[in-house]
Design goal:
The chain is mostly helical. Helices cover 69% and strands 0% of the residues.
Length: 178
């Protein structure tokens, strides 16, 4: 196996490991009283951030598996948030070449818009299915916190794991542009 393929599979394994660590800390009973505010959805920010920066590190099947596991462990309706995040990630992957030449601020705005849209669709589907979606204020706080946490998630991914955007002339092992 060549070094490029080994790196891709290593980064995929790293992504799965990071997702499991995030879920582990999310499930820890750190406070026994209900919180008045919602923290950021770090896992969604991680999936979408890696999808924009290096789509080859997060294939659709890996995203679906990780997000479905998160749905089951966090007691959300199984598959709904997973499908929405997967669709958002694939849409962002399809626009990855355009994001290479943009600034981080525009990437951040795109992430924020995508997150707001999938959150609204999520709440709308829950309301149509007559499932209590939770308070709008709590969901709004979580979306805002996730948008604010995105630069931190992307920065940590870059500094700790080297997840960066592909350069304009970068090619894969077969000579195709990334």
């Amino acid at each position: 196996m060549d070094a490029a393929r080994l790196r891709i599979w290593g980064m995929r394994a790293l992504f799965a490991f990071i997702a499991l660590v995030v879920l582990f800390f999310h499930l820890l009973p750190l406070d026994l009283t209900p919180s008045r505010w919602a923290g950021p959805d770090v896992l969604t920010a991680l999936v979408l951030g890696w999808s924009v920066r290096r789509p080859d590190f997060v294939p659709a099947l890996l995203i679906a598996g990780v997000m479905l596991l998160a749905d089951l462990l966090l007691q959300r309706p199984p598959g709904l948030w997973s499908v929405l995040v997967l669709c958002a990630a694939e849409w962002l992957k399809s626009r990855e070449r355009r994001h290479r030449e943009t600034t981080f601020f525009l990437e951040w705005l795109t992430f924020a818009a995508v997150l707001i849209v999938i959150t609204m669709i999520y709440r709308l589907v829950l309301m149509v299915l007559i499932v209590a979606p939770g308070t709008l204020a709590l969901a709004s706080v979580q979306v805002a916190m996730t948008i604010l946490a995105y630069p931190l998630v992307v920065g940590m991914s870059y500094l700790l794991f080297g997840v960066r955007r592909a350069g304009p002339g970068e090619v894969d092992r077969l000579g195709r542009t990334i």
